[in-house]
Amino acid sequence: MPQPEGAALEALRAHREELRARYLREGRGRPVTTARGVHHVAFICRDVEETIRFHQEFLGFPLVEIVENRDYRGSTHFFFDIGHGNLLGFFDFPGHDHPSFAETVGGIQHLAISVGEEQFGAARKALDAAGIPYAGPDRGVEDSLYLHDPNGVPIELYRERLGIFEGTPILGETLEGSPGARA
User: Fold this and answer.
1) Facing residues of 66 across strands?
2) CA quadruple 25, 26, 29, 35: dihedral sign
3) How far apart are CA 49 and CA 45, in angstroms?
4) Of 90, 91, 116, 144, whose CB has the highest number of CB atoms within 10 Å?
């Protein structure tokens, strides 16, 4: 897609700075969130076994539960542990068409998951061995691997601690002892 240039680009940058000044409250002025965290993110999958194998074998996310979906008979609902009490969930819906992934307004651009140095390397090695394509360090982004799971779900494996973005803390507290922490 074409990217904005010239005056259009400058107008977007100026608007971003206006939003920053109007809404971003840093330090002690920042309100405390009303949420406890992400319980789970749920995606739709085409094939339960293929999805389990990919997330468990290539990405190292252990399957922690698999049950029938309470809202759709015959549908499977299952979860992977992605650390710190966060779950990655999937459903299948037998009998439904599953169109290809499309990036669109209201859709997901990608799910960024914090991983440590060891897991980052292990995932990259497993993806390379299986011939699964990804983008990342080749784009000048040393700490990210961008890939799609078998269902088209866009995932970023981000080699950065939770609460940190590009080396800068963006939350008041960071999870220093997190499994995804980098030294």
Assistant:
1) 78
2) positive
3) 10
4) 90
Tokens found for residue 175: 């999870």
Task: For residues 136 and 147, give the distance between their C-alpha atoms in angstroms, rounded to a whole number.
Answer: 9
**In this structure, what token pair is assigned to residue 154?**
């866009």
Q: What is the DSSP string of the chain?
A: -PPP-HHHHHHHHHHHHHHHHHH---GGGSPPPS-----EEEEEES-HHHHHHIIIIIS---EEEEEE-TTSTT-EEEEEE-STT-EEEEEE-TTS--PPP---TTS-S-EEEE--HHHHHHHHHHHHHHT---BSGGGT-TTEEEEE-TT--EEEEE-S-TTEETTEE-SSS--TT-TT---
pTM: 0.79
